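Researcher: Before we compare anything, I want clean individual predictions. No alignment, no superposition, just each chain on its own. First chain goes here; please echo the sequence and then give the structure tokens.
Model: Echoing the first chain and its structure:
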Amino acid sequence: MDAVGAVGTVGAVGAVGTVGAVDAVGAVDAVGTVDAVGTVDARPVVRETFQEPVQFEYIGLLHSETFTMKRAGQKVMAGTEAPGTSQTSKKQKTNLYGSGFGESDLCTSMDWGSLPHHVILRVFQFLTLVDRARASSVCRRWNEVFHIPDLWRRFEFELSQPATSYLKSTHPDLIQQIIKRHADHLQYVSFKVDSSTESAEAACDILSQLVNCSIKTLGLISTAKPSFMNVSKAHFASALTVVFVNSKSLSSIKIDDTPLDDPSLKVLVANNSDTLKLLKMSSCPHVSPAGILCVADQCHGLKELALNYYILSDELLLALSSEKHVDLEHLRIDVVSENPRQVQFHTIKKQSWDALIKHSPKVNIVMYFFLYEDEFDAFFREETPVTHLYFGRAVSKAMLGRIGMNCPRLIELVVCANGLQPLDDELIQIAERCKNLTAMGLGECEVTCRGFIEFVKMCGGRLTQLSIMEEVLIPDSDYSLDRLHLEVSKHLGRMWFPDMMPTW
């Protein structure tokens, strides 16, 4: 370990566990270059010294340690030779650098404590939190830079139960230090939790303590099952209210799969209607059509919205199309059957879609379907301006036929499964009428080689993404699989092969 004055053994940051002895950060050679952490050049290294003992604060230490540097009447020299460094190489390096620099220049070039704050800050911005914490122990100036607010604008809290999760949890000491010292600096905050209710409740507890913050973006992420749904509505609403009331410049909120409700949305609108630009709230069952309509009516700067189909309404589309509202850029709609074959899906009027497209002609409308084949009756009976379609379950030939007839803005189509009926006619119709189609993916479907080649021929080079499993393609008398890839490659203008199922 490199000697830094009279430095003791330092524990690593608690968020990553315990590391033994920490090498000096940034051992310096004569020309001012910084070697990797822990590498020590054979030449003497001058370190900054202090008249009085200095205590450095590590954030999130498993075991907090204090170390001091004392004036020894002259500059402290660390002359420890790195293992494996020979006298010959040492002499060569000394001659090399000594020829260009005097001894005073050498000392000056290695006075890292005198670097301007903005230079150190720039370097720190490229380091991880762990490396910044280690570097902050070099000298007082580096420790001061470690706490500059610009380094604490963005933070992701990871919360998990060690016994049941692979997710590494943010150390509790680090969480408390952030709340105590840097809460008012946080602007971009996210919480990543595992499948346990305890982790979701811990995230809500942290949110409740962010009373002095001014958050701009907030994200709640469940890495497995939606654990926030197990938190009581009162606890979750109380935590969100703290953030919504104290943060007056929220622009982006991602809170899918949470017990968000209408009263919480009203608090959000009352405090952030002028700044909100993105709201993702898919699978929030406690939000009603009236609740999301309140957001659209008041938040005229909203550009991106994600929600479930059951709260999509004609009134909502018209509100998003008002003169006061900015152009909508992205609308994601999840169509999910919560109670299979027991829900009657409503139909959105063509006039409402037309109003939205007239107001926001470049909007991307993305729809994810997780329905059974007999639940599609309400969709695509009239022209629908959808641009991206994803079917997570089987979809009928009739449904694909309606897509070809009534989705002229379609850009991407992904079909997970269809059955055992060839889709030649449906694909050809889609290629003919959907002039903007650039991406296609087919899973458990069937298409003849002839029909597939005709589809690709009609789309041509604009089909930039084409993912088809080899098992989907049915050889016929005209085309084998070997010949098919050559024909498809010719029409696409690039080499193409069908995807193959891996063999384990």
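Researcher: Okay. Second chain, same rules.
Model: Second chain and its structure:
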Amino acid sequence: MIEYDTILDYMPKNGLRTVVHQGLKNAGFNVDEIRVRTDRPLSFVSGNKIYFVKPDGALTAGMDKGFIVERFSLNTLFRSICENSVYAYLDEIRQGFVTLRGGHRVGFVGRAICDSDGRIENFRDISSVNIRIAREIKGSADDIMPYILSGTSIKSTLIVSPPGVGKTTVLRDMARQLSGFGIKVGVADDRGEISAMFQGVPCNDIGANTDVIENAPKADGINILLRTMSPQVIITDELVTDREVNAVCYAKGSGCAIIASVHGSTFEEVKEKPAFLPLFQNHVFENLVILSMSNSGSRRVETEVRQLK
């Protein structure tokens, strides 16, 4: 239950906290997500399975038996996540998520308020909150490390994974292990999920030789690390934009190895995305790692490694 304590601290001190706490105690497995929706049943997600939480904390497959979350409770939870200062968290809110101490990520949706150019300025009437529970799993990168370290050289590696399978967990363990080999590691952690920094100290074990830039836009973070920390390898999560891809290509061209992740299910799917084309045209990566959930829907992650060069 220790890993859930931070999350429970944010829960409103009413029925919701009690039900979530009891439900977590009753779960005989790791809960990956806590789903809170206005006027709908509270649910837990583990692997590919959804469990509804009854008012007494028992878990059930029947959604009609789940504890119904009142609007007041969800609004109170949202304000608590924002430390009762929504204005201070506007940058995160515009992106649709807030990262809590410990690396837990809280996503939310509702009615978006947009400016004249269609860019999201804020959210109102929050309708759904998804609390993704971060865990350190030391050794999760063991199967991949032999492909990354070859003698004294570091092989740049791209991790492809659908959401929720565990790529951030693997990246975190890679940082820890590479650091343990005396390698200078830089982490561009724009959402704070890899390191989970709190007042300048990482809550997660990312190694003694690892330097982190947190909350900066990913491309800026990569460039700052290159200029200031002379990393031998830069690790970053979830490449999306052209600017991020260009920063990765520049870093690799500057002699720094890159370990990064993207959302996807197959290599072919990733190659078809125009934003990622420069990664392959410039031969940025030597290894491709595909993570997927086991067919049984359990938390066992299946790993496939391809060597691109």
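Researcher: What stands out in the second chain?
Model: The chain is about 30% helix and 30% strand. Additionally, Residues 145-307 form a domain with the Rossmann fold fold (CATH 3.40.50.300).
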